[in-house]
């Protein structure tokens, strides 16, 4: 006889590649990504802003964290400037990390919205599979490390990446601002 039996539903899905996950293991790097999402900064500027935010780290440590993020392709050099016989590098984040919690009671407030989103997404997923299922499955097959790895949800991952990229595209082209602006 079991002491506890519970149907545990999936409540969250986190998708990222292992290199990015490793880069995000340190909360200082998340702060750096947040800083660089808004403006490009030099290592010196990053160091100063980290100190302002209560992170008393050496400038070499800030440089190390930026290099880890750069190696994970989450930060890029945005601009180079000549400076005192050398070159000053300005970094910018190409990755947005949302590390928020919804307020208490949001689940209840958003129940109808969630139902609409689920219904609309089901229709979109059906359309994507009808029109592009072969491409989605081909990419998913390339991801599988072995023929027995059916439990890895590769097709779902590809769909999530497609939807995520579509949201990024809308954000970058101003499409989300247009929608959100209509409600102001």
Automatic annotation (TrEMBL):
Q: Which Pfam families match?
A: HTH_20
HTH arsR-type domain span: 19-106
CDD domains in the cross-refs: HTH_ARSR (cd00090)
Q: Which InterPro entries match?
A: ArsR-like_HTH, HTH_ArsR_DNA-bd_dom, WH-like_DNA-bd_sf, WH_DNA-bd_sf
What name is this protein filed under? Helix-turn-helix domain-containing protein
Name the source organism.
Saliphagus infecundisoli
